[in-house]
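User: Fold this, then the next.

Assistant: Folding the first:
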Amino acid sequence: MPASAAYEPAGTSYVRRRRSRFTVRQWAVRHSRFLETLYRLFAGALLRLHPVWKAIGYGRVEKPMVPIERGLKSFMFDCRMCGQCILSSTGMACPMNCPKGLRNGPCGGVRADGHCEIEPEMPCVWVEAWKGSRTMVRGDLINVVQEPVDHSLRGTSSWLRVTSQAAAEREAADKP
């Protein structure tokens, strides 16, 4: 068996695991402004449905919503379903695709060609995020420091979480 030039954790090779998905991820970054607009419209629709979600119960709605969200976001962004999606502030590049799991910018190991130090064939997620954020209307959100990932939310719907939080904020603002 030939020796690999670089350390490669079992089953995580960029070539095998990500090449086909990376093509779609690159498209998403290149079209981040369009996707940002689409997301705002979708988020608005989910928020208008808040009374329905609340009546049914967010816990019940989450069960069928998670597979839909996982399927769509997995295809488009190679989503890891962290439950705390920040695509709208990272140029439509999912930071959870960073082999180091960095959530607030690139590590010190970004190669001169903009590729990852861990997976040299893969462009750095944060270099891509910066490119995507520069075309977005609210692209400066990439500069907002994110809180650490709450791993207890893994596998849950960030769409429903954002909707319930936005509805709660709206209701709080409407109270005198």
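Now the next one, as you asked:
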Amino acid sequence: MSEPARKWPAPPVTESRKSALREYGEAFAVALALAIVLRTFLIQAYKIPSGSMERTLLIGDHIIVNKLVFGLRMPDSIFGLTPFAGEIPYGKYLFQLERVHRGDVVVFVYPEDQTKDFIKRVVAIPGDVVEIKNGMLILNGVQVDAPYTHFEVGPNERSTSPRDTLEAVRIQPGQYFMMGDNRDRSYDSRFWGPVSRDAIEGRAMFIYWSCADDSSPLTCFYDVRWSRLFHPIR
């Protein structure tokens, strides 16, 4: 006569729940760590808040920036703190890869407030001589008439301010001269000087979202500039 089937006790419900919670917690921690690493060293999303880069970039454009293209740069801080500042080179490149070229649209640390990021175009690199005459960029003695340049002020409205007039200056090693494509509505190197290589965080790649009304997340989802999506930034 065969023995009756043995009934094994069910595992404790509390242990199963703890195991599931631990797995979810570990997965979330890994995902968060990967997101922080990606945002710090590889790519980062930015939103354009002003018209200084019109018409290349418009207010409400959301862009992706390649932060590894120029090398591996340490963040300026860790959640606003700089522990072991004597040992960790915050805001410096550990190693450099591609050179920064004239014409690159880059994100960099604003020299007058290092908690802010600016986006401008590199118009001069080390060794170049920059001059502004009547609002026009003179580079190494030659006037630059680039197709991306946008003006809102006529020749008769020019002044002697740095926006329109700047004496010739040679860009020193490790320095880069930045200007907005909207030359009449940009606060840039004409006012506060060149930017260091270490301050440059990455190169703008493409527009991944664009909304004409970005006053709220809701309006940004239905007032979309579809023609600008995935448009490369040049």
